[in-house]
Specification:
single chain, 225 residues, six-stranded mixed β-sheet, 5 helices
Length: 225
């Protein structure tokens, strides 16, 4: 399957309005997190730490709700094999998507067994047999960075055969300019709290205590003794 075929699969299964609304929901998730994770509710560093978790939770919830509004698109929350974390899977025709945050455009999401399973069951075998164009294809919706005021990454990415990188990336922000907006609220960026300097006071000079001597009576020597 060629790169252009992968892009064609995306556009054939994810309609134009759904793509635009994905960006709207992502932008709104960032805005909600910026509005909620602020002093005085939280300290500066705690707000910055919490914001990423809230963006993820908000967007994945919105992602499923958005899918429910379109016929032919289904979404569900699934538990990973370790039963420690949930993720959203959106199925649209032969394409299915999961979403993951990244810090940079070239970054892969951190390792997750479920992503490897989807890739193995999805498009990886297509590179062995290019005639399998009607079978399921898996892609990751990468977004981020989580600590930014607005997302600068919103990319549909198809893994390569080895699962070590991407052979096709569709930049939704470039494809649909003007959707991602500046935040309505200023995001309080994390700030390192200065470590207070300990000012050493001059060493005190401790006076040696005076020893009180015993004054013995003077003995007068008698004559003839």
């Amino acid at each position: 399957m060629s790169f252009s075929q992968l892009e064609q699969v995306f556009h054939e299964n994810i309609e134009h309005n759904f793509q635009i609304n994905m960006l709207h929901e992502l932008n709104e998730a960032y805005e909600e997190a910026a509005d909620y994770c602020r002093p005085p509710k939280y300290g500066l560093n705690e707000a910055a730490d919490l914001r990423g978790h809230l963006i993820r939770a908000s967007f994945e919830t919105k992602f499923r709700k958005l899918a429910s509004e379109y016929s032919g698109i289904k979404a569900e929350s699934r538990l990973n094999s370790q039963k420690s974390y949930h993720h959203t899977v959106v199925k649209a025709g032969q394409l299915f998507l999961t979403a993951s945050s990244v810090n940079k455009k070239g970054d892969k999401p951190r390792y997750a067994e479920f992503r490897n399973e989807y890739a193995t069951n999805g498009q990886l075998h297509l590179f062995e047999d290019a005639s399998c164009v009607d079978e399921e294809v898996y892609a990751i919706f990468r977004y981020g960075p989580l600590k930014a005021q607005t997302p600068s990454i919103a990319t549909i990415s198809f893994l390569n055969k080895e699962g070590s990188g991407f052979i096709e990336n569709i930049d939704l922000i470039a494809l649909h300019p003007g959707i991602i907006q500046a935040p309505k609220h200023d995001v309080v960026e994390v700030q390192e709290e200065p470590i207070p300097k300990i000012i050493c006071s001059p060493e005190e000079i401790i006076q040696q205590p005076r020893t009180l001597g015993l004054r013995l009576p003077r003995i007068t020597r008698k004559e003839g003794s």
